[in-house]
Amino acid sequence: MENNQIIFNIENSGGWVTMNRPKAMNAFDDVMMKSLASTLQEWKTASDVTYVVIKGEHKIFCAGGDLKGIAGDNFDALLPAIKNAYKIVSLVHNFTKPSVAIMDGITMGLGMGMSIPGPYRIITENSKLGMPEAAVGFFPDIGAAYFFNRCPGKIGLYLGLTATIIGPQDAMFTGLGTHYVPSEEIEELLTRIRMAHGKNLDEILQHHHRPYEGKAPFEAHQHIIDDCFNQPSVEKIFQALAQNGSEFAAQTLSRLKAISPLSLRATFDLFKAAETMTMDEVIEENLNRYLKWVTTPESRSELQEGVRALLIEKDKNPKWLSPPIEY
Predict the structure, then answer these.
(1) How far apart are CA 90 and CA 286, in angstroms?
(2) Which has the closest alpha carbon to 2: 31, 43, 24, 44?
């Protein structure tokens, strides 16, 4: 089954998903979300599917959901798509069959949600991972509070608050990726998986895994992140960064000041609450908070302004309505 933008095949005992929407960086519209959610639900119990491979064409994995659609006021029309997006995350997380995500290129938002909850997450030299939602006046949803909280120290909270996009070394260091495979070997890897009918995945993936050389950028900064982000509030994080004195802390503080204060507080609160939640509980919490966000005038306006400034007009100069963080 295919609709050109997302292609599904059952081949050699595997369910193969290929995203093919290059002009939108393989971002999902509502039709794609519905198709993937229903297909994964079918494959969950299909006897002829014993594993799943998710990949993107054009050296792009998936830039997430198509947020341009939320620039208007018709949030009710978006709810089915949001529910399908969250269902995808839950299905991947709870899938009893192994899934392999080839995160070659941009992997953001829903791209993270359909890959990180699975057991095999392949990183290449082209990988760029992140949850940029806070930067557009929202909060990192799609299960991020669950899997980011499992990064070393306070790196996950740092990623959620700053909307930072990371490269392959940091993706491996944080545990968001499980195997590093050069992009030139991806086709060979996929052929071996296909020919083995999904068996011996650990052995095949380990054969192609190439440990990165040198230190990941976060290794040099983790002590600063842990010290400054292990705080009881966003205000205290700002204060700790201001007092740290390092160039990295100053750059981080500057980045945080450019993000919606409302989004920062919402992200911090969500990540704190999610520390004791299961993935399914986080997904349910995401939905509840989404509904509240888009029906509350202050937060809805913040989201619309972020989408306008970063995705529609692209002036990259959002005028946040929420008052700045006082520290």
Answers:
(1) 12
(2) 31
